[in-house]
Amino acid sequence: MSAEATNPEAHPEACPEPRRRGRTRLDLRRLGRAALLGPASRDRLPDAIGHVAEAHRAHHPDADLSILRRAYLLAETSHRGQMRKSGEPYITHPLAVTLILAELGAETTTLTASLLHDTVEDTDVTLDQVRAEFGDEVCFIVDGVTKVEKIDYGAAAEPETFRKMLVATGNDVRVMSIKLADRLHNMRTLGVMRPEKQARIAKVTRDVLIPLAERLGVQALKTELEDLVFAILHPEEYESTRALIAAHAGERDPLPAIADSVRAVLREAGIAAEVLVRPRHFVSVHRIALSRGELRGSDFGRILVLVGENADCYAVLGELHTCFTPVVSEFKDFIAVPKFNLYQSLHTAVATPEGCVAEVIVRTRQMHHVAEAGVVALGNPYATGTPEAGADPDEERADPTRPGWLSRLLDWQQSAPDPDTFWTVLRADLAQDREITVFRADGGTLGLPAGASCIDAAYAQHGEAAHGCIGARVNGRLTSLASRLSDGDTVQLLLAQDASSGPAAEWLEHARTPAARIAIAGWLEAHPGRAMATTTAARAPLSVVGARGGGANAVADLPDATVRLAGCCTPVPPDAVAGFVVRGGAVTVHRIHCAAVARMRAVGRTSVAVHWRATADCRVTLVAESFGRPHLLADLTEAIAREGVEVVSATVEAPVEQRVRHTYTLQLPDAAGLPALMRAMRDVPGVYDVSRA
């Protein structure tokens, strides 16, 4: 099934693509009538699922079809007499859903469950019967797809059905594969329903099912669902796009000629490749029309190049960029850096000598199968047999049932017992259609939605312990918790030692993941007094001044001159220093590398020689940068006192983005103790830097 060609049955007037050769078109009405006549003889497959068997054998030549025969017989018998709103026998629906999955390459267990997916919900068949006849796997999948009873859940039935289905998908991704195929067939036949019901189903499909299809990589289903939803929810734009495509069909298409040129280039280079022209689906054409305005002839499709090996993809790219003019801004390498939904390809665009620009996709045939079918193409992830052809036997097989986004979804849904909250947050979560990977300080990784902040990383890594997060280092540099993360960043999260620490209300403005937002909102609701305290207006700086002043231990070579240590660089023994006479005849002493020294010398000021007294004591000003938390000032003061240092004065500035700046003027008994003092201050939890003023 093409991921980009619109389904011919859904839009026959707008899709000029010829039908697939070698396989007759499935006539659901004929098969429905045949189903009503009863099952075929027991020594062969019923004629009604012959198309399913043919499609299944095309992907799995050695598949055992006997279980499909038994599943069909049970489905046909149990649904006999039931009719769809379209007037067709109901059995045509599970047959159509199963055929969709068979053409995508689903394995036998998925097809068996697909044939039975409505039996427990709509007939007298029970899960125990399914388990006894077909085993635990088929029973689990059928149960996962079965809706909850509306009589039990009322208006919450739809959200709770999706919750049940997503939890089941967390254990077996084939549950969602069947649901997507089920929704596709229902959308194809939605025209018999009232317009308001069509719109309601289309909106749920747009908000939930299409994003799930994208995340599971099932592009063949996603693109057709997009077109069907587009036709229902935006009929005027759909008709306009259909007219554009129809008008283009009557014009000369430049893409076939460009494809011929590409074939010739690759043939001359000795690269075995299949070159195809892929028409864009309706929504894709509409998006390009919105972004570019007037469409070019080559905008209605793309060129697809299929090769055998990964290395051939880059060889094709080299030939294309050598023989045509590449559009550099259009190049993307999804082979070296695959998308989070398994997608791999090289994307580029080239210009011909005539000035025609064509987009080109290069991928292997295996990549193409995965790009079309996503997780369906991976077969049974629980099989313990021999690895797939071409797979590395020593390589651990990726489990598609728990990609990062699904694990996060399953985690936060447990914290959202209210159906309305779950439904609202689910739609918001699925609307975030890109994912990034960041590295933890311990070497692990975190999968996060694009635009996630350090707050999201904290809750993804530490759960509710992230309430005490006081800061983060990104790529080794300190940053605020509100900072957004980029793909490939390394993040180190700093947690407070104080168990009573909690998030600030403004964290909600920077949290993107549902898990973080639900956890923060829950904490703020449980601590209303603390929440108000975090949002109060900034206070004036707090200053603490000691009782004694203390004199400088620097002596200037100028009789009777008053000596002052500069506050900009706070020199201490044994720093190299220089003095400059200021107004009033006083000498200000700076460290030799202070910027003020360079400025004074630049304007011709003459320095005065300065030396240190023999006494070891000195005065110094230190600045401590920290994350705000309770008792921080007391802990810093205690750390200073333990080093035997006297506080002359201290200033604490108001917090800015959870960061606090402390400035201390200190009297040290011995200048040699300054490094140890600074280390002791840095060891105070929440302090990330201490420097001389």
What is this structure, in a nutshell?
With 693 residues, the protein is α+β, with helices and mostly antiparallel strands. The protein is 42% helix and 16% strand.
SS content category: alpha+beta
Distance between the termini: 68 Å
Backbone shape: elongated
Radius of gyration: 35 Å
Largest sheet properties? 6 strands, mixed
How much β-strand is present in the residues?
15-25%
Total number of strands: 21
The oligomeric state is single chain
Number of helices: 26
Helix content: 40-55%
Mean pLDDT metric: 79
Low-confidence stretches: 1-45, 384-401, 532-540, 542-551
Annotate the secondary structure layout.
Blueprint: H1 28-36, H2 50-59, H3 66-79, H4 92-104, H5 108-115, H6 119-122, H7 127-134, H8 136-145, H9 150-153, H10 157-171, H11 174-188, H12 195-215, H13 219-233, H14 235-249, H15 255-268, E1 274-279, H16 282-292, E2 301-307, H17 310-323, E3 325-326, E4 332-333, E5 346-351, E6 357-364, H18 365-373, H19 404-413, H20 419-430, E7 435-440, E8 445-449, H21 454-462, E9 469-474, E10 477-479, E11 490-495, H22 514-526, H23 528-534, E12 542-545, E13 554-556, E14 563-565, E15 577-581, E16 587-591, H24 595-602, E17 610-612, E18 618-627, H25 632-642, E19 646-652, E20 659-668, H26 674-682, E21 687-692
Parallel strand pairs: 2-6, 7-11, 14-16
Antiparallel strand pairs: 1-2, 3-5, 4-5, 5-6, 7-8, 9-10, 9-11, 12-19, 13-17, 15-16, 18-20, 18-21, 19-20
Helix pairs in contact: 1-4, 2-4, 3-5, 4-5, 4-11, 5-8, 7-8, 8-10, 8-11, 10-19, 11-12, 11-13, 12-13, 13-14, 14-16, 19-22
